[in-house]
């Protein structure tokens, strides 16, 4: 028992050291940031890196004060259930507080990255990309659902080149099972690219099954022209659902992926 406890302590210490190193790298890559930290779902600070500059936007605020501010803002934005005992966020958030920009970015394992600075709006997508390169974000795990192998292969190639950890499913039930397994293991697919017309269980039915399990998973439907955008949105009760029309090009797919992984920041 004593050995096991020592091993767990060592593992936690190594993880926190690794997170601190990543925070320092993100800080170095983004000159407009003054502070980068990682918090767990209970708002405990696991790692942080800060600039020591007189003009720093964080001034005399401690990292703990900034976490409290971020969480208050988070609650105000309705990013999570205030009655829940945990405080994990479910989407990218950008807000301003006392002339400071606060960015909150959901990571795997119910962690949150919080970045503080005076940030130009045009730099925010670069900050999101920087975080994605150095942390296992929820947006970096994807599943492709299509009964045609050539479609799965072509989409998988594009997603892998964009840094996604990609899995494939040849049927609706296989996709639902994969989503359920991921949830049980404490992970989550950031994206699902699925065909609408599949034998047995079509894309609409798959969506209705996986959405309650993994509501943060972004879905891109693949279809020809048998459904309009409005019809698809109505069937899944989601006006912002993305649709990839067959035949599609690599550029078409890349644009949709970019739209989903770098959304317009919430003000």
TrEMBL record:
Pfam families: Response_reg
Domain Response regulatory: 141-261
A GO biological-process term: phosphorelay signal transduction system
Domain of life: Archaea
Name of the protein this chain belongs to: Putative signal transduction response regulator, receiver domain
Alphabetically ordered keywords of this record: Phosphoprotein
């Amino acid at each position: 028992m004593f050995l096991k406890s020592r091993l767990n302590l060592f593992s936690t210490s190594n993880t926190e050291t690794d997170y601190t190193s990543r925070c320092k790298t993100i800080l170095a890559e983004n000159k407009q940031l003054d502070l980068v930290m990682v918090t767990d779902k209970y708002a405990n600070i696991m790692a942080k890196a800060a600039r020591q500059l007189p003009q720093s936007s964080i001034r005399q605020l401690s990292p703990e004060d900034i976490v409290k501010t971020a969480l208050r803002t988070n609650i105000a934005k309705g990013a999570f259930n205030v009655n829940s005992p945990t405080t994990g966020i479910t989407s990218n958030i950008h807000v301003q507080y006392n002339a400071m920009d606060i960015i909150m970015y959901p990571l795997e394992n119910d962690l949150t990255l919080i970045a503080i600075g005076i940030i130009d709006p045009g730099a925010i997508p670069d900050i999101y990309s920087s975080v994605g390169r150095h942390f296992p974000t929820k947006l970096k795990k994807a599943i492709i659902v299509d009964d045609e192998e050539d479609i799965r292969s072509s989409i998988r190639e594009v997603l892998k080149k964009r840094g996604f950890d990609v899995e494939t499913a040849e049927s609706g039930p296989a996709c639902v099972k994969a989503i359920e397994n991921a949830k049980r293991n404490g992970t989550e697919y950031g994206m699902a690219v699925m065909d609408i017309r599949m034998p047995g269980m079509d894309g609409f039915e798959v969506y209705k099954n996986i959405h309650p399990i993994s509501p943060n998973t972004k879905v891109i439907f693949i279809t020809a022209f048998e459904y309009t955008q409005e019809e698809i949105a109505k069937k899944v009760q989601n006006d912002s659902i993305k649709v990839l029309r067959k035949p599609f090009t690599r550029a078409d797919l890349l644009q949709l992926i970019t739209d989903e992984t770098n959304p317009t920041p919430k003000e």
